[in-house]
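This entry is retained here.
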Amino acid sequence: MTHVRLVFTLGVLGLVTFSAGPFAQERRIASPAGRAATQVGGRYDVREGYVGGQWIEVRYGRPIKRGRDLFGPDDWRDALNDGAPVWRAGANVSTRLLTEVPLVFGTTTVAPGEYTVFIDLQPTEWIFIMSTWPAQTTYDYENHTALFGAFEYTPDRDVVRLPMMVETLPRSFDQLSWQFLDMTDTGGTLALLWDTTLASVPFTVAP
C-alpha cells in the first residue's frame, strides 16, 4: 500500500471512529432523568450573590414523544397509566417533590420534606396528587413499602388532591418537562408540559 493510500485509509478510519463520537459505547436511556428547581426566601448580596434561599425541587423521568399521539386516542389515559391506577407524571421512577419550605396547595399546608407526585387523569379533569408514599429509585419487586412509578399506588397516603388547570400550547414540547412558573418569594405555579398540553397547579410559600 502506498504512503498516500495508507494516510487516506487511516484518515477515513479516524473519521469513522470520530463519527461514532461519545455515543459509541454509551447505552442511551429512553427517558433520561430530569430535575426542575427553584429557590425562595433568599436575598442578593453584592459579594456573595443569592444567599439564604431555600430549595423546592422536582425529580422525574423525561419521556420523549417520539411521534406518538399522546392525548388523542380513546385509551390515552390507560396508555399513560401503563397499568397503574394513576399516572406517574413522568417515566420509570416515581416523580418526587422535595421542599425545604412549607408549601400551601389549595387549603392544605405540606411540611418540608419529600413527597411523591402523581396525576389522576379523570375524564372531566386532571387531579394533582402529593403523597407520602416513599419512592424506589431502582425497582425492587420485593419492596412493598415504597413505590416504583405509580404501580401499587393507593390514595390512603395522599396529602394533596387538587384540580389542575389544563391548557393547549401553540407549540409541541417533545420531551416531558416539569417547570416552576411565575415564581416569587410568596409562591408560584408548578407545571407539567408535554406535547401541546400544559397542566398546572398554583401554590404559595407558607409564612
In short: Residues 2-19 have pLDDT under 50 and may be disordered.
